[in-house]
Design brief:
Blueprint lengths: L14 H15 L15 H12 L8 E4 L5 E4 L5
Antiparallel strand pairs: 1-2
């Protein structure tokens, strides 16, 4: 997340709000054959991170989306370069 840290909360955004915003995407992805997810195309971790970003950026103050395949491999997407 990107943005000012709240004086009263000490965070940019409550994790519950992030979880709520991500829930519809999670439902589309969890225990699904990713090759059949609409709009995802080739389901590499890079494409998945961008797919998530494209669907959440308008709703959340994203700074990056991280997708992990294992504890040592994955990617981070930070939006389109200007």
């Amino acid at each position: 997340m990107a943005g000012p840290v709240g004086e009263d909360t000490g965070w940019v955004m409550d994790f519950a709000d992030i979880k709520h915003a991500f829930a519809p995407l999670h439902d589309q992805l969890d225990h699904r054959y990713l090759n059949e997810v609409a709009g995802l195309g080739n389901p590499t971790s890079e494409n998945l991170a961008r797919w998530i970003w494209d669907r959440l950026a308008a709703e959340l103050p994203l700074s990056e989306v991280v997708v992990r395949e294992t504890c040592t491999s994955g990617c981070a997407y930070r939006g389109k370069e200007a």
